[in-house]
Amino acid sequence: MVKYHAMFRFISISVFAVFLCLNLQAQDQRLRGRNLINQPSDYWENLSPIEDPSASPTPATIPAKIDRPRISGTGIPAWQTRYTLGPGDTLNFSVYDRPDLSRENVQIAPDGTVSFLQAVAVQANGLTPDELRDRIEQELSFFQNNVKVIISPSDVASKEFSIIGRVRSPGSYTLDRPTSILEAISLAQGIETNTIRGSAFELADFERSFVARNGRKLDVDLASLYYRGDLSQNAYLEPDDYIYVASNLKNEIYVLGAVARPGRFKMPVRLTVAQAIAEAGGFDRYAYRIKVLVIRGSIHEPETHIVNIKDILAGRTKDITLENRDIVFVNERPFELVERALDSAIFAFLQTVTTESIVNNYVPLAD
Description:
By secondary structure, this protein is α+β, with helices and mostly antiparallel strands. The chain has helices at residues 2-32, 40-44, 78-81, 129-140, 181-187, 222-228, 273-279, 309-313, 338-360, and strands spanning 90-95, 98-107, 113-116, 119-123, 149-155, 160-165, 171-174, 193-196, 199-202, 204-213, 216-217, 242-247, 252-257, 263-266, 291-296, 303-308, 327-330. The chain has 3 domains: 86-155, wza like fold, CATH 3.30.1950; 160-247, Outer membrane lipoprotein wza domain like (Outer membrane lipoprotein wza fold like); 252-360, Outer membrane lipoprotein wza domain like (Outer membrane lipoprotein wza fold like, Roll).
């Protein structure tokens, strides 16, 4: 009986082993029939959109979605709907039925505090006048009963915007009322001009000019506003906005992104894409070295070109000659949609030209 069970067990194990081998061979044949991807360039070569990222055999190479939504400049400025106080603002204080306690032209200190009677160093920065009144009354309640304080701003100086570049008077200006882009340019004494053989011309290039808010480009087209009179682009400014008015005189290009020395480069002679990257010190260690993005024309409606730099460096494709004010952008990761790399390129361009303009207009303090 024991011998019969041992023989039956041996036969069962043998049948299972044969079945497993046949199954693995069939699975191996199915796997051999698939086109496996050995490197990212095999996948990204055609730059086609991904229909099902979860089914991609190389999910690690799929770039994260860049989410930089455009900021609209239309409508009433938000700071006008809820005015908040800040350093430099001047206030008038009074107490109901106590005219002897009134104080005028009390300025908020640089640290954002203000004092009135026994209420000393009360934080006012970021508060509305009504919210500051409540805090002042709370502090005074320890010294006086049922005190009613009235606060009215007498001078607004805490809100500012900046305008830099090709205007006659670049700098910071107080935002004490709703101010549009054209009004801001007017406050800066207008656009710089030059004269050649008795003919005056403006030095600004509004195709490359922009308004920035919180580090991002405002969704307004300054070229349409200034050249074509499209007043729908004449947005109201918010505190800490800055306007950059580009120059139309410079013969230059920008090489940005994953290169050793990103920035602006003079172009005394015509350069190609490969030469421009070499001028910027070549790729850095994080660069995607197969395709680069070339941006041409207006930053509001840019013309984009994807250049296969790998084929150019290998001699399989002719190099591309750059034009004045072109932007060459080297991404850190492969991109399947031009728009995503374009967002990163425009963001880098805004940072670069703003930093350069601030440094060029920096005046050190005298000893």
